[in-house]
Fold each of these.
Amino acid sequence: MSGLAIEAVGLVKRFGATTALAGLDLSARPGTTLAVLGPNGSGKTTAVRIMSTLLLPDGGTAYIHGHDVRRRAGQVREMISLTGQYASLDPRLTGFENLVLIARLRELSRRTARRRADDLVDRFGLREAAGRLVRTYSGGMRRRLDLAACMLVPPRVLFLDEPTTGLDPRGRIALWELVQELAGDGVTVLLTTQYLEEADRLADEIAILDRGRVVAVGGPDTLKAKIGGRTVRLRLADPAAREAAARIVAAVTGVTPGRDAGQAGLVVPAAAPHVAPELLRRLDEAGIVPSELTVRLPSLEEVFFTLTGDPEGRP
Amino acid sequence: MTTMTPGRAARHGVTLAARCLLHLRHSPGQLLDMVVQPMLFLVLFVFLFGGAVATDWRLYLQFVLPGVLVQAVLLATVAAGAMLNADLTTGIFDRFRSLPIARSAPLVGAVLGDSVRYVLTTGVVLAFGVLLGFRVRTSPLAVVAACALVLVAAFAVCWISTLIGVLARTPQRLQMLLALVMFPLTFGSSVYVPTGTLPGWLRVWAELNPVSALADAVRALLLGGPAAGPALRALVASGLVFAVFAPLTVAAYLRRMRH
């Protein structure tokens, strides 16, 4: 076998006339975090549902640690945990009862089930809420409980379908920290997201999905470097010095800079990262004082629009 | 660990059945509903219509209590469908499906967990009836037989409820469909009045309706009279309902399990 934790090969899924997946390939090495990034309707959820045995593909298949999700769903289910887009919990039970129920379904003894539930309640910051009905939980609490439920029997592969959708910024950061912690324990994580920042923050690798296909895959930095170039942005303390500064920038980078929104700024695409010190030195020699000089990679947002060419598909 | 055995499947089903009891404990409203509704029906019919129907409410209580027992327990079966529908229409079903548990477990759990309700309802109706003045005219054994007959029928009818529960896409539609099935079935029978008093078309329906046979059988078992005939008809009807609706439910359920 390939030794991959997750491997999807040519997944195809149609719903009536619409094609949700049009030959999707994905792979994740054990212990890594793979983010599947795409706008609504790009097939993220369909892909997760197939890989977690909830849905049968029309073509292709997926393997979890070498087990075919179509033929050996039982074995796959032993190894995975899933949190769907909607928290997979019983709103009419307390948080603690939810955990014990799932632990019992995983055939832990009554005592072990209660002990595990107890540990996880602490670890996921739900001590005070544990005795309350899940119906009364906030979105962030539900998500945390959902994740806790996934960890009752630590999975080898964890699927998180849009884990932070609908959370406020604080809840989102708290959840990110939890996911990072789980990934640190050696769990292979596949998460889908519409948030480029989330993928950037959590993933070792990002696969960008558009219309049921992967349009780009790579580490966050590789992906950014591959698609967009770097940009040098220069802001001047004295707008009058712009013309002189522009000449220097052109001389250093070989490109005539564009103006930045009527401000005392200059923007230029720059291939090499070492232009910044050279620029600073030459500006200094000419007696021009920059108020700001940045060399930055394009944001994932820019990457995404470059790849899908669809600014309307914005998350 | 990875092969599904009947023993494991049974454990999963029982674990999910226990969940129904937790629900009951957490929603006193539901429990109250279960207890108060049959009491309300009994009080309403006995005191409001009793005098008119049977000249004396005490006489009518004797007649109607077995019927109310049948109706209350059959109506209690809607909970199984509601439970299954709630699971299917919320995220928790995805959890069940992604766990290495028997595919049957959520269905078995809903049906099994519900049987506790039937027993509870049976007890409540009988106890309240006795409190109002109902008197059993037969033997304790006959009472046990009457309860058993009602429970068997409920176990059969709950498959109609689960089928609706699996098929209904929204809770609103579920409520409507359940009412559409349960009301003609329980009211259009000899539960409240002897079928002889009904107008032609309703009488035809009420006499065909196996719920009448069930009510007649329970009445005979509690008050005396020929019980064997109606009891047999009720049992056969229960068997038929089960034979038709259980496979239909399982088929519809498995289809939803896959998607």
Amino acid sequence: MAKDSLYKYVLALGDDALILGQRLSQWAYRAPFLEEDIALSNISLDMFGRANLLLEYAATLKGNGITADDLAFKRNERQFTNRILFERPNGNFADTMVRQFFLDAFYKLFLQKLTGSKDEQLSAIAQKSIKETAYHFRHSSKWVIRLGVGTAESHTKVQSAIDNLWMFTNELFEMNEIDNEMLQQKIGVDCSSLKQEWIKIIDEVLAEATLKRPENIHMTTGGREGIHTEHLGHLLSDMQYLQRAYPDAKW
Amino acid sequence: MSEKKIPAWEVFIQPKTGASFQHAGNVHATDKEMALQNARELYTRRQEGTCIWVVKTENIVSSSPEDQASFFDPADDKVYRYPAFFKVSKKAKGL
Amino acid sequence: MTEKKEQLFQDKIDAGLKIEPKDWMPDKYRKHLIRQISQHAHSEIIGMQPEGNWITRAPSLRAKMVLIAKVQDEAGHGLYLYSATETLGITRSELIEQLQTGKAKYSSIFNYPTLSWADMGAIGWLVDGAAIVNQQSLRRTSYGPYSRAMIRICKEESFHQRQGYEIMSKMSNGTPEQQEMAQDSLNRWWWPALMMFGPHDSDSAHTSNAMKWKIKRGTNDDLRQLFVDRTVKQADLIGLEIPDPDLKWNPESKHYDFGEIDWEEFWEVVNGNGFCNKERINNHTNAHTEGNWVREAALAYAEKTQNGDLK
């Protein structure tokens, strides 16, 4: 039973990273300029690397010869348990940067705690990932500031990105049964305890960016239970096409 | 267009601690932090460095090819700057 | 005066010395370089599209990461080359404008569509394979910044061809459907890959000066032959058949003889009538236009804060 909970916990973390990596990879050759194209690919590669480690670990926990690729390419919407913010469409550059900024700030706090996990694998993955995230945060927070301070147009765009994505942020700090069980076993992280610190980080950057944090917004949830926005299905059908169309093939 | 104004920055990479910085190429960036980050993305994808310098291209001062003779040739008769110029007994060790 | 300068310039080249940005150079040399290096840079940049087309559909996590890293390298190589071109007194925005208005060309190979995952194999194996033959010879090109960029690029590209060949071998050893995809892909990419080396030397407008100035270090036909000789054996090894009935070993020349390239097709694609010419440029232009407000915002931020030194 405990092993199954750990599997689900690791799988959910893997799904987060995988879906975000896939989203970022959709920017290839479409960024505002070439240097930024390379930067977005780098973040995408870091996320896929993270997803790969987590899904491989999940696969070994599951056993029965299941592989990380099986988990990535052969499950459907309801079986994916990534949180919704990770699957939000790229939108314009401001939408992507705000999504990234919210998640980088979250990852910074979350991974720091996860390094102390009693589970050695998770702790090792966290230690590797936290360095990447420190850089991602530096990149995304700086862009939020540039866009906030930049021109009237960019200010409007980045503010509206913040307003539109805010409703998906509370989910990052929710705890379900599995999270609680993992916390009790000193394997998982108490996400609910991260919220205040996260708000502080967000506020600092938004202040420098002359942007406002939305208030009184209704919060959405469901990702961890396999409830998603409709966008996820299209992301998956694109990503999983070859594995689904040629189930016997090895690539 | 706007892009005409995006300045170029020259990038210097230190391949390992203690080594001299080497010129790697340039990047385009609007501010210092972006120049540093773009240089990191472009020139250190394969762990090529331990430290990066960026400097706006317009701030580089270069000698010109016409200076070549007057700058560098005068050093060609100053052989006493090289250790081989001095004859010392082979028995003298540690020199 | 100019004649004497030109003689000194040629002497330098004949002695195998490099020309550096501030050195005197004939106007034609400069123009030839701008044309050739920027064309090369544009090819890297437009070349991101046919492969980028499969990033989101890559069939395994490993394949996905490799493909992203490869497309990313192409962006990087485009930048190294833009950077080298800029040393000749032209800005990146001018170069991009030339690309978008069709004044500058890029390698026609990227106007062919990628229709199956095997095409990721064929592009790496054949297109990068052909490019590497060319690029390796260009490491010795006479213009310093170009030569340095080529050295860096060759070092980084060494994984690209292997990556492509690995995909092809896996697929040609895979299910019947995969084998079919692999052979079909080779059939579609073989001739365009041979065209990448350009027209026959006798028909090439630019070859003679380029050789004299050591901008190019091998002729189109020589490099093409080198590529064919290398590739035939690689195809044999993974059981794929090169789509050329005239292909055979010539024991006298110790090279493979091969059939005539369809030059009509070549010129059609060069002149903009290829399958994807318009789409490639439109995609590039759209991404660029959509990025306008971002670049403007970043510039405005830099102005307001003295390059980002806030407070």
